[in-house]
Design a protein that fits this description.
The protein is mostly helical and about 450 residues long. It has 21 helices and no strands. Helix 9 packs across helix 21.
Length: about 450
């Protein structure tokens, strides 16, 4: 298609078809949300600095959050009211619209930034709909602020170089998902779905470590695929992961994990509440309660969020002492805290999580079993590779590749051919895996 409106129209059309393929009814909810915030943002800008602008902002935010709560949390809230009061109120059972947690936060950032004067409102509804409906990151992030793509929506430049880089990034993400996350998920399900009483201590730790690996490669793989597709179409999306498992504190981990969600809560909740200036620990409690609740309408997610917040508070309180601990021990501490936390993330039942943790730490059953040992030995090279790719090894390889490409020698030709072979090999392997598995859900689709 020629550049300009025609290309945007194609993206909107096929993004809506893509969404409707999985959500034939709720695609209209997406369009309604986009139209509501488009109208309110125009009103905010027109009456900026007046009570009318504040009213439009309030109405927009309440509409977005109201829809979000009705679909995602109404059943949870009414169930708890029934449990506390003994009432028998009807508990609604809505099918959660795919990606509602992500696109709700995106549209909130837009209207709030317009109100703050950081962003001008979009004059064209279809351009705003393009921003909210872009299929590459619509269903599981990263959370893209309007300012990140405003210039590209108006005028973007697709090049062979960007397209090539997009294919490379997409392929890496697909490989993370298919080759590592799916395989780790098989191990995680095997051990974490088993009766905790039948597991040895080693088996329980192996199960949660595999789930931790699965969660990282599944979600960061989706983010890589979204960023890669964005490059192909002329958009540059923010990074969402920065090797979180090399962190040496929970605070650092959350600066590296799901970066766009963390920055949302920092800029739109934590700082407006007072940030580091006023009621720091109250603010941290609210942010981490909301972080857990955002992930799901269940107490296990709230516990997981507050659990992370507790350690961030403790690290702040003990900062002078904590920072003197050798890096190696702080890294081990972080890995233990993260793995224990993900037990609550994995189990919807608090008692299920408690039983699993009991096996991990108390040794109620055997400390070690031969079957788990053989499982690890039989897959030791895959496990070692999965652990290795949790580190910035790809980043260093890419740096070396760029040096070879600018060398102007036969090395640059070798580097280019090697990269091409790598991409096609990974695509072929992923295609073979996908052909043998009819269902490959992304874990963050549930949120």
């Amino acid at each position: 298609m020629p550049k300009g409106k025609a290309r945007s129209a194609v993206l909107i059309l096929f993004s809506l078809i893509f969404y409707a393929w999985g959500e034939p009814i709720w695609v209209f909810l997406l369009i309604l949300t986009a139209f509501s915030d488009y109208i309110h943002a125009k009103s905010i800008e027109k009456h900026l600095g007046t009570a009318r602008a504040k009213f439009s902002l309030t109405l927009s935010v309440l509409t977005d959050i109201g829809i979000f709560i009705v679909f995602k949390y109404s059943g949870f809230i009414i169930s708890n009211i029934n449990a506390l009061t003994g009432l028998s109120l009807y508990v609604p059972q809505f099918r959660l619209p795919i990606g509602i947690s992500f696109y709700t936060f995106q549209t909130l950032t837009y209207v709030i930034d317009v109100y703050r004067g950081k962003q001008t409102s979009q004059k064209s509804f279809f351009k705003y709909l393009l921003y909210l409906s872009m299929y590459f990151q619509l269903v599981a992030g990263p959370i893209v602020r309007y300012g990140d793509v405003a210039e590209s929506i108006e005028q973007r430049n697709e090049t062979l170089n960007k397209f090539s880089h997009g294919i490379y990034r997409f392929t890496l993400g697909l490989s993370k998902k298919v080759i590592i996350a799916n395989a780790a998920g098989v191990f995680a399900d095997k051990y974490m779905n088993a009766d905790a009483g039948t597991l040895s201590c080693a088996a329980a730790w192996f199960g949660i470590i595999m789930y931790t690996v699965q969660l990282y490669f599944d979600f960061s793989g989706y983010s890589d695929m979204a960023i890669g597709l964005g490059h192909m179409f002329g958009f540059k999306f923010p990074e969402n992961f920065n090797y979180p498992y090399i962190s040496k504190s929970v605070s650092e981990f959350w600066r590296r994990w799901h970066i766009t969600l963390g920055s949302f809560f920092r800029d739109y909740v934590y700082i407006p509440l007072g940030g580091n200036r006023l009621h720091v620990y109250r603010n941290l409690f609210i942010v981490w309660f909301l972080t857990g609740f955002w992930h799901g309408a269940s107490w296990n997610f709230i516990i997981w969020g507050l659990y992370n917040g507790l350690f961030i508070m403790l690290e702040r309180l003990t900062k002078p002492v904590f920072e003197k601990i050798p890096s190696f021990f702080r890294h081990i501490y972080l890995l233990i805290i993260v793995n224990v936390g993900f037990v609550f993330f994995r189990f919807s039942s608090f008692y299920g999580a408690a039983d699993y943790l009991k096996v991990m730490f108390s040794g109620t059953s055997a400390l070690y079993d031969m079957q788990t040992g053989f499982e690890i030995l039989n897959n030791i090279f895959w496990i070692a590779a999965a652990f290795l790719f949790c580190t910035p090894v790809i980043k260093y390889i890419e740096k070396l590749y760029r040096k070879m490409c600018v060398s102007g020698t036969v090395l640059s030709l070798f580097a280019g051919i090697s990269r091409l072979v790598l991409i096609f090999t990974l695509l072929f392997v992923c295609t073979c895996h996908l052909a043998g598995n009819s269902f490959n859900p992304f874990l963050y689709f549930q949120f």
